[in-house]
Each structure stands twice: as C-alpha cells, then as structure tokens.
Amino acid sequence: WFDLPPFIRRERIIRDAISAFRRGEYALSIYGLLPQPEGVLWDYLKEANPAELTLEELIEIQGRSYVTVEAFLREILSRLIGTEELPFYRFVKFAEFTDDGTLNRHAVEHGISLAFATRENAIRVILLLDFVHFVLKELEHNRTHHCGL
Prior knowledge:
With 149 residues, the protein is mostly helical. The chain has helices at 5-8, 11-22, 26-33, 36-48, 52-62, 69-81, 105-109, 119-146. It has a domain at 5-49 and 89-146. Helix 2 (11-22) packs antiparallel against helix 3 and helix 4 packs parallel to helix 8. The protein starts with a helix and ends with a helix.
C-alpha cells in the first residue's frame, strides 16, 4: 500500500490499526481504518485532479455546488460493484438504527454503534482500503501512461 503518496501520509495510522487487528483489538482497528479510504481519495483528488467530467456529473447528481469525498467514494464503489446501496455508507437515522453488529460508517464514527467491533467487520474495512489502493493504482497507471510520463 505504501507505494502511493496518500497511503504514505497515513502509514503510521494504517500500521497501528493493522497491529491492533493482529492483537484482536477490532474496535481500534476499525476506528483507525474506516476514515482512511475517504482521506486517501481526498489526497488523490487534490494532487491528481482526475476525471473532471465525472466529478462535474457527480456534483450535478448531488444537486450541490461541490462534491464530498464520501459521495465520490460511494459513486466509485457503486459503479464498480453495480449497486446503488453500499453497506458501509448506507444512510441511517440514528433513532432508527439497530445496533446488530452491522458496519455503518456514520453510526460507528458518531458513536451510535457499539456492536461493530468484530473480526469480520475489521476485515471488511481492510479489504475496502485495499480496494481503494487498487483503484488508485490503476488510475495512476492510466494517468501516467496516457500523459506520456
């Protein structure tokens, strides 16, 4: 993972979170890793400014004058996976949220979910971060090879 600048910037956090996973501290692992895909994409977007047309389309879809990194991540994943509803990023009203161990970014990061800290959920987050790395590596490869670099 540490061959791309957005991952290099987060190396300590990622390594600490993976160490927590290995020790069986799944809550720490998830808390450390869950926000990283958005941060990695944010860094990449700032540096590479890829797919301006795609970003403009996404802004239009959201009906806003800007695009959130979360929305960009959701859009990438939904196009690649072929479904609109992504498990981690599903909108939930906290009053209606059932804390059944389901991994939900908003419920976890706002402290609403407490039953999320399972090995399976930690692996899901690790795989999501790995997937983001794969996508960015492909984008970087395409960008550098099409620009004659």
